[in-house]
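for ur thesis appendix - Protein NAP1. copy paste whatever u need, i formatted it the way the template wanted (i think)
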Amino acid sequence: MVTKIGRDAILYVESLIESIIGGLEGLINILDSEGGFGALETQLLPEQAALYLNGASRVSIPTSKSPKGVVGFPLPGHESYPENNSAIKMLEAAMQRLTNLLSVLNDMEPILCVLNHVFVPREYTREGILGNFRRRLLAVLKADNDLQQPSVLESLIHRHLNIVYLAEQHISMDLTHGIQEVLLTEAFSGPVCSLHLFEKPAEQLTGSATEVVCIWYMENIVKDVSGAGILFTPIHKCFKSTRPVGGYFAESVTDLRELQAFVRVFGGYGVDRLDRMMKDHTAVLLNCIDTSLRSNYEVLEAVAGSMHSGDRIEREAFSRQIVDLETVIGFCIEGGQALAFDQLLAEAAGLVLGEGSPLIYSLLSGVAKHIPEEIYGKKEIRRIRGVANSVNIVGDHDSEWIRSILEDVGGANDGSWTLLPYLFATLMTSNTWNTTGFNVDTGGFNNNIHCLASLSFLVPLYC
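the 3d part is after this line
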C-alpha cells in the first residue's frame, strides 16, 4: 500500500513538473512564431516585392495615416501604429511571463519525494528547452510538405536561438553547449570517434535532418524525378526549372546564396553527405555506361576501325547498330548534372570556410597548391586533395571528382574501357541533337546536353 502511494506521488509530481515545462515550451513557441518575433523580422520574397512595386506604381502613394500596403503587404513600421499595439503588448507579455517562469524554475530547490526520489526542476527545464528546439528544427525543415529554403531555415534557426539565449540569461546553466549537441546530432549520428574518418564507412552516419535535405536535393535536382525540366545554367551558377519543384523554382534552392546557407546550417557533415550521395549516384550511372559499353563491344571495335580507316559510310552504318544510345545519353546528362551540382556545392563550402575560418582555408590552399602530381597515389596525399577539392581549392574540381569516383568503382584501371571515347563519339549521331538549341541567356543548351559534354570529356581521361 505504501509503495503504491509512493508511486502515485512520484507520478503526480512528475506530471506537475512536465505541465510546467509544457507551458514554458508554449511560451517559447509563441515568441518563435510569425505572430511573435517573426512579425518583427518579416521580409518580402522577391516575388512579393515585385508584386508590391507593381501595385505601388499603379496607385497613389499611401498616406502617413495608412500603414497598409497596396496589395496586402504591411509597410515597414506598421507595428508601431496604434491599431497594431495589441500585437506588441502580447509579445511583451509573453516575454515577461517567460522570464518570470525561468527565474522561478531556476530558484527552485530539488524536490525530495517519497522513496528517496529527487526531482531537479532546472534539469527538466534544460531538457525541455533542448527537446523543444530539436522538434522545432525538424518541423521547419519542410514548408507545405516541401523543402524549406536553406536561407529561410537558417533565419528560423537563428530566431529560435535568440529566444534560447534570452532564456539562458535567466537560468544558471549552459544551454549553448546543449544546442550545439542537438545541431551536431541532426547533422551527424554515430560515435564521436567516427566523426573524422577519412575511409568510406560501411554505413553512412548522418543525422535525420541532414538526410531529409540531402535526399530532397538528390531526388528533385540531380535526378529530377518530378520532371520539372531541371536545367543547369553555367552563366548564373545555378539550376533552373521550367515549372516549380515543389513550392519553389529550382533557382530558389540551388544558387550560391542558398547553398551557403545549407553549409552554414549543416556544416561539413552535410556537405560530405550530399557529396557522397552524388558520387554514389554517379558511380551507378558509370556502371550502367560500362554495361552498355560491354554489350556493344564488338560494334564499337568496328566503329573504331572505321574511324581510323576514314570510311565514313561504314562508320555511320556501325554507329546505327549501337543499342540503347538514347539511354546512354540520359545517363551521361544525369551524371553531368551531379558533377555540376557538386561544383556549386564545393564553391559554396569554400566561401563559407573562407569567411568562418580564413586561417584554415589559407593553410589548406597553400598545401594543396604545392602537392606534386607525381606522388598523387599516396593515401595521405589523396586525402588532402580530397578535402581541398570539397571546398573548391583544387584548380580543376571536376577532374579530381571524377578521378575519385573511378578509383572507387575500379574504372580507372580497367582496360575494357579503352573503347569509351568511341562510344562518346557516337553520341554525336543521336537524334537528340536535332532538337538541341543553345541559350545565350543561360550559357547552356535547352536539354542539358552540355552536362553530357562535361562527363564525356573527363571520364576517358582517367580510364
